[in-house]
Every structure is written in C-alpha cells, then in structure tokens.
Design goal:
Helices cover 6% and strands 46% of the residues. With 345 residues, it is mainly beta.
C-alpha cells in the first residue's frame, strides 16, 4: 500500500495536565478499569440485525434504543488496546455525541460506552474538559471515531482534530450532580490538529471524521478519514504515526509527524480499518437503506452494498477473531455488530 505526504503535520495544541490533577483532587479519585467493569448497570441483549455481512449483533436497553439525544458513532476493542487476554472478557468501547433537543438547557457533549459482551452489561462514561478550578464541562465533539491503544483513548473530533485521554484518569465523581448525571467521567489530556504547510497552495485542513488502529504497521499507527456528501470537498484517507515509547500521537520534527495520504475514499464514508492487508470502508446510505462496505486497496475499492444495518458508522478490527466490529446510529435501529472479514474477500 503506497502513500505520499499530505503537507499536513500533526501538532499538539493543548495540554490540560494541571487541570486534570485539580479535577482528580476535587473528585472521588481515580478508579481502575476493573473497578468500572465491576459496575456495569445496563443490560445488552443479543439480537438479529439486517445486513448481508452481519455475523453477530447486540442491542442496547430500551431507553438507549429510543434515545433521541445520544447518537452512537465510534467503535474500538480490547484488541486495539493490546488486551486481547482479558480474563474471558470480550470488551468493546463505543463513542456517541449528543444532539441538543428543544427542551435541553445545556449541550450534553460526548461520551463513551464500555461494553462487556460476555457479561452482556455496559455503562456510559461522560467525556469532559477539566477546568483549572477543579471543575468540569462536557467535551463537545462529534466523536466520529475512537481508538483504544494501550493506556490511551484517541477520539476523532472533526475540525477540532483529535483528543487523547488516559484510561488511568477515569474518575468516579462524588455526586452525579457534579457530572451532569454521570457517575464516571474521563477528562481529555491533549488535543492535536493537522498543521498546514504554508508552502503548499490551496491545502485544505484535515477533518478527523473517524479513526481506527492500523495493526499492519510496527509500531501500530492510526488511520483516519474525512466524511463528506459533497463531491467538491476532500475525502482523504490518511495514516499517522504513534510514538512507540509514549503511545501518544507523533508530533516530532521529522517525517513521522506527517500525515501520509493513502488515497481518496467514496462519498459518505463513516469509518476505515486495515484488515488482512486491505482497507474496509463503511459508507452510510441513510436511515432507510442498509449500509455499504468498500473493501480493497485505495485505488480499487470493491463495493459491497446492503452489507450492514442502516446508519452504519465507524469500524474496528479484532485480528485474533478475524472479525470487523461496527455500530449503527438511528433510534430503534441501533446495533453493535460484527462481520467476518473473510466475507469481503
């Protein structure tokens, strides 16, 4: 798979370490992943889902299926985190953003949902900005893609770039009122943007619509892409490096911080992943039509129509299972589902 430079360099534009520590001091303190996994109050249900390629499917509980505010977007797994051996737990994390409803006094921001597919339980965790005084506010991003890699969680934020969280910063708040009704919050540590090279004329800034972990590189890298329904706008697919020592996105002075252009994808892309040496791109066809998957090289993507449920979103890959994971977003038609990678060969 060939690539070329985009003229875009990844640049860190925010570090909230001091504010996070102030929030920790004011909250009930940090908790571990095991503590969270022992406190999953909501029930998942195995389900059937439409789509020619669907292998397995799960539904959220009734209120979450019908919720008009929260819309699922991103997906990542314990395999991305390097936690394939989780003591029998098959763990998946999804992301959602909140639409502001007419009766909402405030915007609710974005959140993640931690799912244990073996226990069939899950919990929502609010993504937040830590404030210098030890307070917090919701993080207002689309969260169209999410990557759980090592001790970090990278969340795609469209024009705002990428936000990175430390899973070790997971906090249990003293009162739900302090966290917009949530018991657990995760504060952002760093923000990144694609800095444009001023010597390249007409260069459009990169839109981080979705992201996934690229298991094909050593060390692993991130894949990202741009959603658009406008044929005149860019719809680039790009790879950018993760620092092997820190696990953070590479922003160094050398070529590793340059976003590598892999090619252009189809309109209405919702997610991309490299699985079995081939790209797999999810494309939504709207509320009424089942979604598509394009598979192959950037130069020769093969269209697989009606492969997924309606409103399909981001995509992730679990190599040991050889399964693709994705989510769908519309009320009453929300599923976490898997697809066999070999189905697209």
């Amino acid at each position: 798979m060939t690539s070329e430079g985009t003229g875009l360099h990844l640049q860190r534009v925010g570090d909230t370490t001091d504010a996070v520590e102030a929030l920790v001091a004011r909250s009930g303190g940090r908790v571990g992943l095991d503590d969270l996994l022992g406190d999953l109050p909501r029930r998942l249900r195995r389900s059937w889902a439409p789509g020619r390629a669907v292998h397995e499917a799960w539904r959220l509980d009734g209120p979450d299926q019908l919720d008009l505010r929260w819309w699922p977007q991103g997906v990542t797994t314990a395999a991305d985190a390097g936690l394939a051996d989780t003591g029998g737990r098959r763990l998946v994390v999804t992301s959602s953003y909140a639409k502001k409803l007419p009766w909402d006094a405030v915007k609710h921001g974005s959140r993640i949902t931690v799912m244990d597919l073996d226990a069939l339980r899950y919990r929502h965790v609010l993504l937040v900005r830590a404030l210098p005084d030890g307070g917090l506010e919701p993080l207002h991003v689309h969260a169209g893609g999410i990557v759980w890699h090592g001790e970090h969680l990278h969340v795609a934020a469209t024009g705002k770039g990428m936000f990175t969280f430390r899973t070790a910063d997971l906090l249990r708040v003293r009162t739900r009122d302090a966290a917009y009704g949530y018991r657990y919050v995760l504060p952002a540590r760093w923000q990144y943007r694609a800095h444009k090279d001023d010597t390249v004329d007409g260069l459009e800034g990169f839109r981080y619509s979705f992201a996934s972990l690229d298991h094909s590189t050593d060390p692993p890298a991130l894949l990202a892409g741009e959603y658009t329904n406008d044929p005149t706008r860019t719809r680039r697919l790009a790879r950018f490096a993760i620092d092997a020592g820190t696990g953070l996105l590479e922003t160094g002075p050398d070529e590793r911080s340059v976003l590598q252009h892999l090619g252009d994808g189809p309109l209405r892309m919702q997610g991309v992943v490299n699985a079995g040496g081939r790209l797999h791109v999810t494309v939504s066809q709207g509320r009424r039509t089942r979604g598509s998957v394009y598979a192959g090289t950037p130069e020769a993507l093969v269209h697989h129509p009606r492969a997924t449920p309606m409103g399909n979103e981001d995509i992730a890959y679990w190599p040991e299972e050889d399964l693709l994971y994705s989510v769908s977003e519309h009320p009453t038609a929300r599923w976490l589902f898997t697809m066999r990678r070999s189905w697209f060969d």
